[in-house]
Amino acid sequence: MTEHSQIGISRLVPILGLILAIAVLYFARELLIPLAFALLLAFLLSPIVKRLEGWGVPRAAAAGLVLVAAGTLLVIVGWFAMGQLIEVGGRLRNDAQNVQRKIAALQGHSNSLNDAISTLEDLGVQINNQKPLGMQAPLKVEVVTEHNMMQAIREYAGGVLRPLGTAGLVLIFTLFMLIDRENLRNRLLRLLGEQNLQATTKAMDDAGRRVSRYVMLQFAVNAGFGTVITLGLWLLGVPSPLLWGALGMMLRFLPYVGSMIATLLPFAVAVAESDGWRTPISVLALFLVTEAVVSNLVEPLLYGVNTGLSAVALLVSAVFWTVIWGPVGLVLSTPLTVCLSVLGKHSPQFEFLNVVLGDEPVLTPDVIFYQRLLALDQHDAMNMLESLGRTKPLISVFDQIVIPALAMAERDRQIGQLDAKRENFIVQTINEIVLELTEAEASAAAVREMRHTRVFCIPARTTSDEIAAAMCAHFLLQQGFPAIPFHLTDSPGELIASVGCQSDDVVCISAVPPFAEANVRKVAKSIGEEAGSPTLIAGLWSYERPSEVRMQRLVKSLSASVATSLAEAVAQVRAVDARSAEVID
Q: Tell me: the pLDDT tens digits for 316-332?
């Protein structure tokens, strides 16, 4: 097998694995849906069971009591809701004439639309009735299926027993999960491998914490939604406000569509029981405003922090799980997606899941800035730096964003991945941005009293080094140092000697990776041979701060002190100036 075919197979394996996983989720949904519901209930009820265990109740008894209490509560609520719905149905039948009168009134206001629709319908009938000569109208064939008593019983029993069977499976799974949770956890840890014990434990704890918080917060938010709806409908005089509030609370567990479904029945009741349209419109406004506040203000504040999922991921997951599992998948979409995101966060093999689903930033600001430059988008790049400049000092913005972007551009240029068009655009754009952002500070520094120490900022070899040297000179001028930035030259030692550099002056050699150290070494050697012995600072910009041993080696090999940021270079120049002032005094 050739290397090319092996690479093709390795790329094909994840795709086949994804297809297989989706197929298993679809065809095994009869078993997986009760299991997923049971897991969700176990997350929700486990804290209560643990509390009862703390009071001395045996675990099996505590789990049974909690399930019985939860089931009893659901039966009571369901019985109450069913009775109320039957009563509401009777009212709607009695008020049918009122509804028909309002519909007729609406139709009376839209006669022109009705006439147009009737005309189109008549035209369609005439077209359908036209037949070619010699053709007869086809005979209508109707298949009549004979229904006997046993078939009717079987269909009715299937419609009733199937949901009951699913509910029974959910209760059984939940009971065993609550009773035997440590054993299940240990078996899962053993299945995933003891060598991954730490990562698996963190993933399970993280998933349990996120899902539990999400379920509790969703229950609290939905309860608040139902309370507001109940009070609002009571004030509007809509019958059975408690029923509609409870129904709204339960239906909101269906993301995106639950609140719309919950609006229909109270709106229909308001239309049937009220004389005009004021109350029905008020009901619609109540649901719309409450849902807008909850979904746009409350839920993003609570769910985004506790689930760790992006808004797009929540929407896509809702669609995906609905397609796979139907309406039940819509209810379970967020908890299941949380588990997938946690799997990607703690497992390197599935890191793409956390990147796709999570809400954590996947690109650092310097990478985003450089990407905008690669996209030839000067406007976005400038806006990004301006917004960051409002929250942090400009020197920090240059150290953390601009210089790393220069280093990335220089790296891509060295390996041949940066074409001339983009290279010129990046250099020109960063020059313009630096000039614009530093213009106001330069005017303020012009009135500052100048210090004694002169600083010569000289680039090592590349255009990026030259831009960084100009930045360094700007911030030194801002501190009152007479700093002079130089352009690129083939003879830096002769250049420094020609400006009359003295021993109490400072020469800051500016260099951007990837070959910063080698370039600085050449410039430092040239200055030492031609310009005497000024104080040298090697500006190895965008370098990580080396260890003390590594720093000592750099200082010795470069014959210069080392600064890895503009802020550090300014601090070192201030220290040199302070020592010079002490000598003068």
A: 888 888 888 888 888 88
